[in-house]
Amino acid sequence: MVRIVVTADLHxxxxxxxxxxxxxxxxxxxxxxxAIVLVGDTAGAATGPLLECLRLFERFPxxxxxxxxxxxxxxxxxxxxxxxxxxxxxxxAAEAGFHVLDHDPVVIGDVGLAGSIGWYDYSFADESLDIPxxxxxxxxxxxxxxxxxxxxxxxxxxxxxxxxxxxxxGARWMDGRYVRLGMSDEEFLGLLCDKLAGQLxxxxxxxxxxxxxTHHLPFDELVPRNRPDRFAFAAAYMGSPRLGRVLLxxxxxxxxxxxxxxxxxxxxxxxxxxxxxxxTYSNKRLEVLEL
Length: 291
Prior knowledge:
This protein has helices at residues 15-31, 47-55, 81-95, 133-138, 142-145, 152-158, 164-167, 175-178, 185-206, 229-232, 241-248; strands spanning 3-7, 35-39, 63-67, 99-100, 106-108, 111-116, 209-214, 253-258, 265-269, 272-276, 287-290. By secondary structure, the protein is an alpha/beta fold. The strands form two sheets. It has a six-stranded mixed β-sheet with strand order 5-6-7-8-10-9, covered by helices on one side. The chain has a five-stranded mixed β-sheet with strand order 4-3-2-1-11, with helices on one face. The longest helix has 22 residues, at 185-206.
């Protein structure tokens, strides 16, 4: 039997998350297992909190695996997000004894573990908001764009389509400020989907069963709905069905774990058990899978 412990969204750079993260790390180390997987948003742009958080799991007896989250790609001055994804985060992880699952899958016993940060292409946007797509690309809702000098052109360009409800939306998605990919979100998602598909093909040849871990959501069923407009705007950045199609293409896949939405839940989708860990900023959760 293989025992896998999973948590997500520790956000260790945020003050109200630090003590809950310490508690869940202690619980995970005490529970033990063959592997622990941190499924995204362990910390933000500064690498110090990331390293400090990963070291909380020092006494965990099994493999230590990390999947980055979008916050992990947030840049400091002079950085770009691809370098963080490909080099910076893996180097910090290795210093703490963690392996970044995105860049190489692992096999434990007869179970293959695949991982991907995943990304978004606005497919999960809440259509009832009727926000023009350029606002999603800029990662700023109309009400926020109206008061942010660098985004007011969006309001002017789309004024005939905007109405009172739009101007009440003062939200923005902070990847717009701190993520610098050098390509579109759709292009980055495509690269990640290809990479994940390659992992699954490799594991299909070497493992009896496969478990996947994605930070962003791979299925529409997982996206929180019927939320206030200030939260509904964020649905566009929850993930993409392209991830789900890649995952469901592999017959050996039995489970998918994800995070990102801070919304716990469990679903059965085409014979695959899909679990959102559902950690919030102040309440961290563990999931345990035994196969």
